[in-house]
Design goal:
The protein is an alpha/beta fold. The protein has 18 helices and 18 strands. Helix content is 41%, strand content 15%. The strands form two sheets. The protein has an eleven-stranded mixed β-sheet. Helix 2 crosses helix 3 and helix 9 crosses helix 15. The protein is elongated, with a radius of gyration of 27 Å. The two termini are 21 Å apart.
Length: 505
């Protein structure tokens, strides 16, 4: 699913109007019917409805919804805010239609003073003040209106996007002036800001309504952002050759674990095996030998000369991919071994966890990273890599993207919507996964999966896309059976076979 900018959304509307063809007012009616259907599915016509409409097309949508609800027997009060005596053409036409319908309980056009209605816990407010075209924070009376609604006990349904929330960049927005919806009914596609963790408090439940905007425009228009879905992943997965053998399925090397952190190397190794690597060698300190041998008998054990930490780089000539970092520790000896390992590695690389933390502490080393390297930071690790703490998720995402372009690397920024930042500036968001996966070791599992896919011959972007999707899908399947609260990283590994089977159906 593509994610368009506010400018592209406007162009999509215009293209649909010109090429379907359909008039703009009829397209608005189509959207209003879809919104009305959702509201009526949630609340009966005994529910009092209060509609707040702005002067633009979002307000036009809201007035059309008010009319349709009134036609279906709902008690609707509508307020149109026309402060500057300037309505969009379709908003003005829907105002006329609403008044002429004569079924509305109350219609008030606000131009100067506004006496807010009493809102009770039984009231449903339809928010049509501002839509995806908003490009600056709300101020003045509209900001006061948002604060009034946020303090009320009423349920709020926002049309397309909560008023005050900007479609993309909310870095300099004013949190108190953004409406907190209970339900957001967004049109055709999610907006970029809806994927940011710090904006979830404004969205409530989110539903995407298909209003049949031009599939031709959607298909043929390039965009920077997209959400990966099952068909995208199926299209790049390679079937396993019936005559495959362990030598043809790739040999993966994992450098992971320090004394006391053997669990990280176990999880990464098990995940690597479950993701289909033909052979997995794990390089770990001597003291981890017994537990590794017992926990993962299928893996080849390679012991570091040191008892408790990674101290010497490994020749990567025999291997098809290397994953390094889980549980590695940040000892200076390990740091020196890490950069030596990166310099001498001849196979595709995945850098995770403590390996990322070491690079953050030795920032000059980042210029020595090979092209097409994969880094898998969580938000705090990304902040450390960037050298500054981001004030919001959008700012952090842009820093990750800039870093990917500068290093010509693939940066997989982990989160609910994990974001793969590509060297060309494009960003792919993952659609699988759940909050039960917010548990220690989950990232180690992801590193093992991606390393296995690289070893099997997938290129870096495909390995990242498939890896994060299957990682999340395994977590979803585990959560369905076990619940989110009790999910642990090992469960993700245990459900990887079901995730692979799902993609083979």
């Amino acid at each position: 699913m593509k994610i368009f900018t506010s400018t592209q959304i406007h162009e999509l509307d215009k293209y649909t109007i010109d090429h379907e063809p359909v008039s703009s007012i009829n397209l608005m009616e189509r959207a209003a019917k879809a919104i009305t259907h959702c509201i009526e599915a949630e609340w009966s016509n005994r529910t009092p409805i209060v509609v707040f409409a702005g002067p633009g097309n979002n307000g036009g949508d809201a007035l059309a919804v008010a009319r349709l609800l009134a036609d279906d027997g709902y008690q609707v009060s509508a307020f149109l805010f026309n402060i500057h005596n300037k309505l969009s053409n379709d908003c003005a036409l829907n105002k006329k239609r609403l008044i002429e319908s004569k079924r509305i309980k109350q219609f008030t056009e606000v131009s100067v003073n506004f006496e807010p209605p009493t809102l009770t816990p039984d009231t449903v407010v339809v928010d049509g003040l501002f839509g995806s075209g908003l490009n600056k924070p709300l101020t003045g009376g509209f900001a006061a209106m948002v604060k009034y609604l946020n303090s009320s006990p009423a349920k709020v349904v926002s049309i397309d996007i909560p008023s005050g929330l900007i479609c993309e960049d909310n870095t300099y927005n004013i949190s108190a002036n953004i409406l907190k919806a209970d339900l957001t009914l967004t049109l055709q596609q999610k907006k970029l800001s809806m994927l940011m963790a710090d904006n979830q408090k404004y969205l409530g439940r989110l539903k995407v309504l298909d209003i049949r905007l031009s599939p031709e425009y959607i298909q043929n228009t390039d965009c920077r952002y997209r959400i990966l879905e099952e068909n995208d992943i199926r299209g790049i997965m390679q079937p396993r050759d019936d005559f495959a053998h362990k030598g043809s399925m790739g040999h993966a090397l994992l450098i992971a674990g320090s004394y006391g952190m053997a669990g990280a190397s176990i999880l990464a190794t098990k995940a690597c095996l479950r993701a289909g690597a033909g052979k997995v060698t794990v390089h770990s300190p001597k003291r981890n030998y017994d537990i590794m041998q017992i926990s993962v008998p299928e893996a080849i054990q390679q012991m570091d000369p040191e008892e408790t930490l990674f101290s010497h780089p490994v020749d990567t000539e025999p291997y098809n991919a290397l994953g390094i970092g889980p549980g590695l520790g940040t000892n200076e000896t390990t740091a020196i071994a890490l950069i030596a390992q990166i310099r001498r590695s001849t196979c595709p690389l995945v850098i995770d966890a403590d390996a990322i933390n070491i690079l953050s502490s030795h920032r000059a080393w980042m210029q020595q990273l090979p092209k097409d390297i994969i880094l898998t930071p969580h938000p705090k690790e990304l902040d450390r890599l960037a050298g500054t703490t981001s004030s919001c998720c959008y700012e952090r995402l842009m820093k990750a993207s800039e870093l990917a372009e500068r290093l010509q690397a693939y940066i997989l920024l982990k989160g609910h919507y994990s974001a793969l930042c590509l060297p060309n500036g494009h960003i792919d968001f993952n659609s699988t996964g759940n909050s039960g996966m917010a548990t220690a070791g989950s990232g180690d599992v992801l590193t093992g999966i991606i390393t296995a896919l690289l070893a099997r011959g997938y290129d870096a972007p495909s390995a990242c896309r498939i890896g994060m999707y299957l990682h999340g899908l395994a977590g979803d399947l585990a959560a369905k059976d076990l619940g989110k609260e009790s999910l642990i990283a090992g469960d993700i590994i245990n459900y990887l076979p079901k995730a692979f089977l799902r993609m083979e159906d």
